Amino acid sequence: MTDLKDLPPSQKADILAARLERSERALRDAETALETRMKELFKANQDLGLRETELAQKLEIESALLLGALSTVQMATIYGERERGFSVSDSAASILGLPEGEETTLEKFISNLHPLDRERMMREGMLFFRKMEPSVAHRFMHRIVRQDTGETRWLDWSIRRESHSEGRPGYLLGTVRDVTEERRNERQVRALQLRAERRLAELSQLQGELSDAKSRVEGALADRNRFISEMAHAIRTPLAALSGALELLRRNVGGQAGEDLEVARAASEQLGEVASKLIEEAAQEDAQSPTLDPPVASAERPALGALMPDRPKVLVAEDTESNRYVMERLLAELGCDVTSVENGAAAVEAVRREGFDFLLMDVMMPIMNGEQATQAIRGLAGPASRTPIIGVTAHSLQSERERLLSAGMTACLAKPVRRETLETAIQTAMICGRDVRQDSARFDHELFRRAFLDLPTAYRERMREAAKSDISKYAADVLAAVDTNDEEALSRASHSLIGVSLNIGAIGIVEELAHYRENRPAGDASIEGFRKTVASCLLAIDDLYFALVHGAQ
């Protein structure tokens, strides 16, 4: 079986495109299934919310009924002595359903006992007098059949007997209450509680299923992003070497051979654009602005000699030999002395040992990748930590660029790297070659350039002045809201300032504002870092404009 790396670039791109298509199709199916399940869970959650509301209303109603029943409960008393017999209060008549005025006796209570309870109650009555402890209230529950309606009612008895003592004969005292409504309410409340418990269990199960589904989607997205990253590196790395090599040959070959190379170079660029489009569409939701670095007219850019010392020392960190060779040749043509290493760890060690004017750092490398190496370099002591670093990545996505800039890189390039974009990146590195740790005027230069170059030439100066004016205004609103401790005004002003800042790539302002607002609730946040960053960015806008935009076509 032919190895993928041995295939021609066009066939390799077709194979990788097919793989990407299958991966995307599988992911879309998974996302569709997840979306359906999420809708089902959302609907179930809504139904549960409605049931919980109904439960609360029913509990409130039942509680009111219970209180009402307790307030109107029917109760009677019984008193008895051995010699005098038993007497029953008049209220017992309403419990038994006797006609008005009819005398109530203990015998009538017994005669009204429900047949299912009569024998049991007679046994308990005998036991009460023979064995149960005196001076203690004993409770009994039984049913009666009302004489007027034939309705079965539940009665609750509390009976206490006292033994005879000197000067007082023994006696029995009892109270009886109709608890039919109480029992009914208790059963209804318990039924409601059981239904609520089942609903809560269902909700817990749904939440678990939702969490599992979310974990599966996150895993699928992580696998997908990893696949896209690997494919981007696998496609663009050889394309970068091919494009660079053809560019180098074109400069040294003339005549018919030069024309043939020009055709090959155009085909290579087309292949690179196709591969870039496939990769960017595969990562569409991650790509806020998925565009390759546009070509910049070099005729009116500042000369490199005005920005760099004679024979600047450049370190190239690239693990692919062909790409490393192309970078060395391009930098040599630009008048640089080049040192090369094959991984990020070697780059950190090289910067620690000797000084360089700037670094060209591949992002995906073994042992230590470009992002990790950049962070390690920024942590060094002395001037080495301030070395400008130009990142080279297989991705052209804005999210990737922002992450690398946040790690400490000065500028970013997407493979394949052209001479024109390399020159622009070097200009950027020289402009921003101050102390990276203290330079609060942090910009995404690609966003900055695109914000102006997408406009007609006549509007660019107006855009520059408007950006400075808006940043000044909204930053002042933020500071005023901080002084007055007005959270609502701070939120409004922050939203406006973030929008304006991102329009021109002023990510330093956005990051400082976010840092302040995250730490504000703790009470130990300082607004001074934000204030200094705004001032630095306002001062840097004109410098960046004339270096990266002015005169560009």
TrEMBL record:
Its main location: membrane. It is a multi-pass membrane protein. It is an enzyme of class 2 (transferase). The modification 4-aspartylphosphate is found at residue 362. Residues 313-430 form the Response regulatory domain. It is found in: Cell membrane. Keywords: ATP-binding, Cell membrane, Coiled coil, Membrane, Nucleotide-binding, Phosphoprotein, Transmembrane, Transmembrane helix, Two-component regulatory system. It catalyses: ATP + protein L-histidine = ADP + protein N-phospho-L-histidine. Residues 13-40, 189-223 form a coiled coil. InterPro entries: CheY-like_superfamily (IPR011006), HisK_dim/P_dom (IPR003661), HisK_dim/P_sf (IPR036097), HPT_dom_sf (IPR036641), PAC (IPR001610), PAS (IPR000014), PAS-assoc_C (IPR000700), PAS-like_dom_sf (IPR035965). CDD domains: HisKA, PAS, REC_hyHK_CKI1_RcsC-like. Its EC number is 2.7.13.3. It comes from the Bacteria. Residues 138-191 form the PAC domain. PANTHER family: HYBRID SIGNAL TRANSDUCTION HISTIDINE KINASE J. This is histidine kinase. It comes from Tsuneonella flava. The lineage of its organism: Bacteria, Pseudomonadati, Pseudomonadota, Alphaproteobacteria, Sphingomonadales.
